[in-house]
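Why does residue order matter? Because the sequence determines the fold. Keep that principle in mind as you read this record.
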Amino acid sequence: MIEQAKAHPTPQTDLGTEPRPVKFRGGGFTPKAGRYAGWLALLLVIGFWQLAGSAGWINPLFLPSPSAIAVAIYKLALSGALWNHLSVSIMRIGSGWILGTIAGVIVGFAIGLSSLARGVGITFISALFPIPKIALLPLLILWLGIGEQPKIATIALGVFFSTAISVYSGVDAVPRNLIRMAQSFNVPFHAIVRRVIWPGALPSILAGFRITASVALLLVVSAEMIGAEFGIGAFVLQAGNLMQTDQLLAGVVILSLFGLAVGRLINWLETRLLHWR
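Structure:
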């Protein structure tokens, strides 16, 4: 009897035991980037790079040290050449990105909301999207003349296709039960687009903006290398032809910093516009 009592504790013994805490496991998959991890890793790479250059492990002709690149950027800033090249490139990127984004958003929503536009638009996008847009630059120069218009048009074309694809993909990803619910309450079409489809497609649209910003940066450098006197791409090409590798890498660093600034801007937009997530 005593052994049976030990094997089967009484309800009073069960009630007297303290509950064991269980770790909450329903927080969802929300990865967070460390605030300082990326910067520390970057500083370690730069420090090792500087050490290798100072110790003579790397020929400065092939890979200048970070201090030499910083000196080159400082001299370019003092001479004014940096601001001249940078302002021209920013003007081209901004103009082409805005034009391509506006057209891509309009066409993307048309494809996502209209069966006729979907049938026509997806066919043309599938046929034209794989074409390298920089290959069209000579043809655009023939059509638009030598000047800023061909370069801006090249950037706008590259941004347009990526934006249109991200927009209609975002519209397609909106849960249909939300749209049907709004229709069952007799909500007008424009209100459904503004209050249901637009917020639901916005994460995909902002992700497309992040991609198109990089596309615009790549295309402006390529276009300036082919046919431009001023701009970061033209400056990098000229420095490479003269084997001025410190200035060449100075231009590359400036492009990288510009990309980081654009990424920060899009992160700020996501924080402001997607606070409901």
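The mean pLDDT is 86.
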